[in-house]
UniProtKB/TrEMBL annotation:
Pfam families: DUF6221. This is Uncharacterized protein.
């Protein structure tokens, strides 16, 4: 699961950089307004999972949620099929 969380955080960072480029170059404020909050919340969930004790009963549900969110990057070459929920 650590590999999935690392993968997800890296993709979020990539997306943040891409959106910053779009905003600087093309003025994509609407895109930023709609997608950046979701990226921030997904990153927060990933960090919460890393900080969570594995015995916490919420960890299984959070792990499932991260697997679902990671599916949006399923076409990325580093995505692993075993991460599918």
């Amino acid at each position: 699961m650590d590999d999935l969380v690392k993968f997800l955080v890296e993709r979020i960072m990539d997306d943040n950089h891409a959106y910053a480029y779009v905003a600087d170059t093309l003025g994509g404020e609407a895109l930023l307004d709609s997608h950046l909050p979701m990226l921030d919340l997904t990153e927060q969930l990933a960090h919460d999972y890393k900080a969570m004790d594995p015995s916490d009963p919420r960890s299984a549900g959070l792990a499932y949620a991260l697997r679902v969110l990671a599916q949006s990057y399923a076409e990325h070459p580093a995505y692993r099929q075993e991460w599918r929920p």
